[in-house]
C-alpha cells in the first residue's frame, strides 16, 4: 500500500530513453523543453498529491484522542480510574486494562508496533496494530518513536497468546493497545539500556550476538537507571525482606527496636576509623556501630533490643566487601546463664532469614540468578544444628590443609575463604559459626573466657567463607571493663557515660552486629557489596 | 530481742553513784580500784560474750548457700534453669519461681525485709522472713543492706496476697523469698532514685511528703537510670510500636523499605542547616532527610518506598521540639492521578498508628499517664474522615480569632498552637491536615498548584497543634525543577545526580516525612521531645 512506501524513494517508472539515431538539435531542444515541462508538471502533480494526501491524512487522523503526550501532571483532576498491575494480567484475559508502565523496548514492523512494557520485575509484550477508525498510522509512528524508558499510560485488552512469549516475563498474555499516552518522557540519552544492564556478564562474554557489557562503575554512576533492571528490583525487594525477617524473628522473641544517636561526643571504640563532624562550635563523631548505646540500653533495663541503622567506617578499604556507610542489624540481650543464649538467638534469627528468603521470595531469587548464576545458599536445618567450630579447631583445619600455623594468629580474608571452601567440602554447608576467638583479636568490651584468659566469649558467623556477624558476651563489671580498656590503650575517662552505665548495676549480656549488605550479597552471591547497597558509599564514591 | 539492738548503743544500766557524805581517801582509792577491776572484768566478760555470740552466730548461719554475691558471670556454667517474668506470677500461685530483678527499694522491719522488685514496667512485693534452718538473721541483714537498683536472682514462692499491694503494679501476688543472690551490684551512688524519677511533677509539687523532684537536665545527664522508670520503659515500647505500625501499614499497601545513605557529596536542600563531615581528603555532608534518595528511588521504579532512619539538622534551635538528630519516618510513592492519593495514604497510615497504640498498648499508656496526665489523643475515626483545611481556611480561622492577617504569611509556633486550640474547640479533634500551602513557603521540589501558581500541592499534618508531618507532590519534570531551583537560589549543577534522575523519565509522585519523636511526644503529651528520644541530641548535648 502507498502509505507503507517511504516518501523519499525515487520513482521507478522513469527510465532514460535510448535511440540508435541521433536526434536533430531542434528536436533535442524540443524534447528537452518537453521533458522539463513534464518534469515540472510531474513535480507539481507530486506536490499536489502529497499535499492532498497530507491533508487527507490530517483529516483522517481519527486517533488523535488515543495517543500523544499528556500535560504535566499537576493533579489537575482525579477521575479515579484504577491502574492495573502486570502481575494480574494472566487472570484478566479479554478484559480492558489500564497500565502505567515503562517502555523497555519498541520495534516497528509493517503496520504494527511491538512494545516490551515493564513494571518492576515483570515485563509483558504489547502490540499496536493499525486499524481503520481506531489506530491511525500517525499513532503507529508516534508510538514507534517512543524512547526506551518512557513512562506511558496504556489502555488495551489482555489477550491470551497462542505461544509463550520468550522476551517477556509474563509469557501467556499480550496487551492489544487501544490508547497510549506519554506520562513522562526522556530529556537525555540513556547511559545504557536496561536490557543490557539486566544481562549476565557471562552472556555478554560468550554470546554470538555482540551485547554491550555494562561495567559496575558505569552502573553506579547511573544508579537510577541501573536500579530499574529486573535483577535490581528483585535484589532490593530481598534487602527489604531481610529487614522484615530480622524484625519479625526478634519481635517474637521479646526484643524491642531502639534508635540510638549516630552523632557522638567522643571518638570511641577505635579512634582511627571514625568520621569527624563539625558540630556548631565543636566537633562530633559518627558512630561506628550502636555498640555503646545498645549496651547502655541493657543497663537501662530494656532487656532485649535491636536496631537497624547506618553505621559509619572511616576506613580507606577499597575492596569488594567494604563500604564506608552500611546498614547494621544489631542486637543486644541480657543473658541468664551463658553467652551461648545470645549465640543461639543470633543463629535462630539468621536461619529464619535464610528460610524466609528461600520460601517467600522464590520468584525474586530466580530473577536474580538469571543475571548472577549461583548455587543455592546451603545451611543445616536439621536437628544436628548449625556447624560450630572453635577458633582452635578452625586453625587446625587450615593447618591440615597446609597453611603455616604462624600465619594463623588471625584469619586473613584469603584464609577465611579457604576455610569456607574446606568446610563446604567437608560439611556441605555455606553457613557456620566460629566460637572462642583469642582475646587479643577482640575489642576491650569482650568478656574473657572463665578458664583461659587468652580466649574470649566471642564468635563470628560466616556465609560462603566471609564474615557477616561479629559478637560476644560483654563485660558488665565496671572494674574489669576499665582494666581491659587500659590494657587496650583506651582511657576510661574518655568514655565516662558508657563506663558509668555499668557502675549502677547491669545484667550480664551479649550481642552481635550484622552487615545487612553482606548477608544480601553472600546469600545471592552478587560478588560485590556495592550491588547490595541502594546508593553505595566507599572512600571514592559519595554520589549519586 | 538482743539481736535487734544496734551494736553501738551505750548500755543503759550503768548510772553514776550519788552520795551525800564524802568518802575517805583510802576508801575512794579502794573503790576506784574495785571499780577499775569490775570494769575490766565486765569488759572481759562482754568481750567473751560477744566472741561466744559471734562464734555461735557463725556456726548457726544455716543460710550461707541461700544468699550472697554470685561470682562475675563469665558463662562458667549453664544449668538451663528458666527465669520467670513478673507478668506471669498471678497465674503461678503456690509455685516456686526464679526471678532476675532489680531491687527498686528495700525496707527492713523486725525480722523481715520487704523488697520492691522491678522488671520493666512491673513491680512486685517480695518478703524475706527469718526462719529457723531456712532464713538466718545474717541473710536478713545482707538482704536489707542491698543497694537500690541492685540486680538479684530471687527464688521463692508466689503467694496470693490477702489485700491488694498498692506500692506494686502486680498487687495480687507477693513473692516469699527462699534464696537471694546478687548478680550485679552498685559501684557508685545513684544520682536519683528510680521511684523519684517515676513521679509526676505535680506530685512533687503538691504532696505533703517532701519528694525529690528530678529535673529533666539531671535525668538526661543520667539517662541510663532515668530510662529504667516504668514510664520510660513504656514510652520506648510505644516508640518501637510506632515504627512497627508504620511498617505494617505501608507493607500491606505495597511499600518497600529502603536505606539511603546519610553521607552526601553535596550540601543540598538548604545549605545552611547541614553538618559537614571530614571525608578522607575531602568533605561530605549529613543528609537532612532522605528526600533526594527517596525521589531517586521513585525514578528507579521502586514505586512506593519508605525509610526509617536518622536525619540530621544543624539548626541551633534550643526548643522543646527540636533535636539535631531525630528519626524520620519517610515515604514516597508514585501517583496515578492526584497528590491526594499520597495525602490519603499518609492519613490512613497515621490513623492506623493512633488506633494501634490505643488498642494494643493500653497498659503502657496507663503507666505513662500516671506520670504525664493528659487527655487521651482524639482523632476522627468516622466516615466523615480527617479534618482537612486549606491554608487559606486556616488563616481565616485565626483572623476571626483576632490574629492580624499580616502576621499570617506563615504560621508561627504560637499561631500553630492557637489554631490547634481553636480547631479542638470547634471540631473536637487533636489531629488534622492543612493543604495547599503557599509556594513561597515550600522547598523548590514542590509541585505548584495547576491553577494558582502562588499555591502548591503540599500539606502539613498536625497533632495537638504541632506539625508532625510535611509533604507534597514533587516536581518530576526536569525543566520545571531546574526553573524552581534557580528561583530559590539553588544551582541545578550542584545537584546534578538528583536532577538527572528526572531526565530519564520519572512518574508523578509525592510523599512526606514524619518526625517519630514528635508523634510519640504529642500522642502522649510528654511536653519535651527529649523525653521521646532514647539518647537525645541537641545543640548542647552529645552525651550520653
Number of domains of chain A: 3
Structural class call of chain A reads alpha+beta
Q: What is the oligomer described by this structure?
A: homodimer
* Annotation, overall tally of beta strands of chain A: 17
Largest inter-chain interface?
Answer: A-B, 116 and 117 residues
Compute the separation of the termini of chain A in Å: 51 Å
The radius of gyration of chain A is: 34 Å
Spans of chain A of 5+ residues with little confidence (pLDDT < 50)?
A: 1-20
CATH architecture of the largest domain in chain A: 2-Layer Sandwich
Strand content of chain A is 15-25%
CATH top level of the largest domain in chain A is Alpha Beta
CATH superfamily of the largest domain in chain A: Bira Bifunctional Protein, Domain 2
User: Looking at CATH, which topology of the largest domain in chain A would you report?
Assistant: BirA Bifunctional Protein, domain 2
Family (chains A, B): Belongs to the class-II aminoacyl-tRNA synthetase family. Type 2 subfamily.
Pfam family, one (chains A, B): tRNA_anti-codon
Keywords (chains A, B): Aminoacyl-tRNA synthetase, ATP-binding, Cytoplasm, Ligase, Nucleotide-binding, Protein biosynthesis
Catalytic activity (chains A, B): tRNA(Asp) + L-aspartate + ATP = L-aspartyl-tRNA(Asp) + AMP + diphosphate
Amino acid at each position: 500500500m502507498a502509505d507503507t512506501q517511504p516518501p523519499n524513494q525515487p520513482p521507478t517508472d522513469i527510465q532514460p530513453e535510448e535511440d540508435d539515431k541521433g536526434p536533430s538539435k531542434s528536436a533535442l531542444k524540443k524534447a528537452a523543453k518537453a521533458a522539463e515541462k513534464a518534469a515540472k508538471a510531474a513535480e507539481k502533480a507530486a506536490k499536489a498529491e502529497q499535499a492532498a494526501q497530507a491533508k487527507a491524512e490530517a483529516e483522517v487522523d481519527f486517533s488523535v484522542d488515543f495517543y500523544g503526550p499528556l500535560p504535566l501532571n499537576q493533579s489537575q483532576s482525579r477521575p479515579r480510574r484504577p491502574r492495573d498491575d502486570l502481575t494480574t494480567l494472566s487472570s484478566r484475559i479479554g478484559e480492558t486494562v489500564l497500565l502505567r508502565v515503562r517502555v523497555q523496548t519498541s520495534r516497528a514492523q509493517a503496520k504494527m508496533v511491538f512494545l516490551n512494557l515493564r513494571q518492576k520485575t515483570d515485563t509483558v509484550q504489547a502490540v499496536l496494530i493499525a486499524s481503520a477508525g481506531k489506530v491511525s498510522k500517525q499513532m503507529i509512528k508516534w508510538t514507534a518513536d517512543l524512547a526506551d524508558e518512557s513512562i506511558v499510560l496504556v489502555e488495551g485488552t489482555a489477550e491470551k497468546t497462542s505461544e509463550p512469549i520468550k522476551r517477556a516475563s509474563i509469557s501467556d498474555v499480550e496487551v492489544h493497545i487501544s490508547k497510549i499516552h506519554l506520562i513522562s518522557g526522556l530529556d537525555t540519552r540513556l547511559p545504557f539500556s536496561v536490557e543490557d544492564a539486566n544481562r549476565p556478564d557471562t552472556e555478554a562474554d560468550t554470546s554470538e550476538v555482540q551485547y554491550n557489557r555494562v561495567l559496575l562503575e558505569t552502573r553506579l554512576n547511573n544508579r537510577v537507571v541501573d536500579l530499574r533492571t529486573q535483577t535490581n528490583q528483585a535484589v532490593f525487594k530481598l534487602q527489604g525482606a531481610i529487614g522484615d525477617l530480622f524484625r519479625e524473628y526478634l519481635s517474637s522473641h521479646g526484643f524491642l527496636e531502639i534508635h540510638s544517636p549516630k552523632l557522638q561526643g567522643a571518638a570511641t571504640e577505635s579512634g582511627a576509623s571514625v568520621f569527624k563532624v563539625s558540630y556548631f562550635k565543636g566537633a562530633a563523631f559518627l558512630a561506628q556501630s550502636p555498640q555503646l548505646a545498645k549496651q547502655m540500653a541493657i543497663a537501662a533495663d530494656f532487656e532485649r533490643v535491636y536496631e537497624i541503622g547506618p553505621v559509619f567506617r572511616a576506613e580507606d578499604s577499597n575492596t569488594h566487601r567494604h563500604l564506608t556507610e552500611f546498614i547494621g542489624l544489631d542486637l543486644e540481650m541480657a543473658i541468664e546463664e551463658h553467652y551461648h543464649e545470645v549465640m543461639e538467638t543470633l543463629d535462630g534469627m539468621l536461619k529464619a532469614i535464610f528460610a524466609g528468603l528461600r520460601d517467600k521470595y522464590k520468584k525474586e531469587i530466580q530473577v536474580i540468578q538469571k543475571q548472577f548464576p549461583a548455587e543455592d545458599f546451603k545451611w543445616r536445618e536439621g536437628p544436628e544444628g548449625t556447624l560450630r567450630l572453635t577458633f582452635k579447631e578452625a586453625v587446625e583445619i587450615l593447618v591440615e590443609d597446609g597453611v603455616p600455623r604462624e600465619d594463623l594468629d588471625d584469619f586473613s580474608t584469603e584464609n577465611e575463604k579457604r576455610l569456607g571452601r574446606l568446610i563446604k567440602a567437608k560439611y556441605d554447608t555455606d553457613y557456620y559459626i566460629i566460637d572462642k576467638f583469642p582475646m587479643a583479636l577482640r575489642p576491650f568490651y569482650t568478656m574473657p573466657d572463665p578458664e583461659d584468659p587468652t580466649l574470649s566469649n566471642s564468635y563470628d558467623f560466616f556465609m560462603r567463607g566471609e564474615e557477616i556477624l561479629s559478637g560476644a558476651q560483654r563485660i558488665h563489671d565496671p572494674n574489669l571493663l576499665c582494666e581491659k580498656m587500659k590494657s587496650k590503650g583506651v582511657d576510661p575517662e574518655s568514655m565516662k557515660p558508657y563506663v558509668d552505665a555499668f557502675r549502677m548495676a547491669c545484667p550480664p549480656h551479649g550481642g552481635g552486629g550484622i552487615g545487612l549488605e553482606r548477608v544480601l550479597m553472600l546469600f545471592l552471591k552478587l560478588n560485590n557489596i556495592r550491588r547490595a547497597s541502594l546508593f553505595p558509599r566507599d572512600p571514592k564514591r559519595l554520589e549519586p
